[in-house]
Amino acid sequence: MLTGLLVAVVVLALACALNLALVLRLARIVRERPAAPTPGASLPEIGAALPAFTARTDGGRAVSSEDLATGTALVAFLSATCGPCHESLPQLRETALALRETGAHAVAVVSAPVAAGADDMVRALGDGCETIMAEGYSDARFAPFGVSAYPTFLLYEQGRLVAATHMLGDLRLPVPA
């Protein structure tokens, strides 16, 4: 009887240890991957004018709101620490390349607390998007865009906001002729 009780206690202890290991692993996974934007996270108001800004791309080219104010421009706001942002990169690259065929612009503004991770995003976008590195999450040049969550995709036509979303697939984009 004592042997049976001892076996039961050992099995129970092993089950508890396994359970603890699984819970700790799950907590680590959840902590490492930031949540997607909360439903209802505010987006800039449709019809708003393209805010004035000037910045240099990762390639050193000067980009300003004046460059984007004519025609169509997609401005993507991404964070290097955001899982959904990284997941959107292949689709953003394809979209940017397709927009380029229509003569439109595509710019990705990448925010990062430090350079870590941002370089991976720039490489993943390749030549599809002009990439601007923001100086942290509170870069004054981009505050007028009113972005409060990542990722955020803003579509401008003739300098006016026509669509804003956290899901790139929700945008209706011009089709190449």
Walk me through what this model shows.
This protein is of the alpha/beta class. The chain folds into 2 domains: 1-32; 54-170, Glutaredoxin (3-Layer(aba) Sandwich). The protein is 35% helix and 21% strand. It has 4 helices and 7 strands, in the order H-E-E-H-E-H-E-H-E-E-E. The chain has helices spanning 2-32, 65-68, 83-101, 118-125, and strands spanning 54-56, 62-64, 72-79, 105-111, 130-133, 152-157, 160-165. Strands 5-4-3-6-7 form a 5-stranded mixed β-sheet, covered by helices on one side. Strand 1 and strand 2 (62-64) form a beta hairpin. The chain is elongated and about 85 Å long. Mean pLDDT is 82; it is low at 32-37. Keywords: Isomerase. It comes from Sphaerisporangium krabiense. One of its GO terms (molecular function) is isomerase activity. It holds the Pfam family Redoxin. This is Thiol-disulfide isomerase/thioredoxin.
